[in-house]
Amino acid sequence: MNRRIGARFARLKIEGRTGLIPYIAAGDPSAAITVDLMHALARAGADVIELGVPFSDPSADGPVIQRATERAIRRGVGLAATLDCVRAFRRDDADTPVVLMGYANPFELMASRKGGLDGLAAELRAAGVDGVLVVDYPPEESEDFAAALNAAGIDGIYLLAPTSSDARIEAVARVASGYLYYVSLKGITGSATLDVGSVAAKLPLIRQHSAVPIGVGFGIRDAASACAVAELADAVVVGSRIIEAIEAAPEDQAVAVAETFVREIRDALDLASTRRSKA
Question: What is the CATH number of domain 3-273?
Answer without folding.
Answer: 3.20.20.70
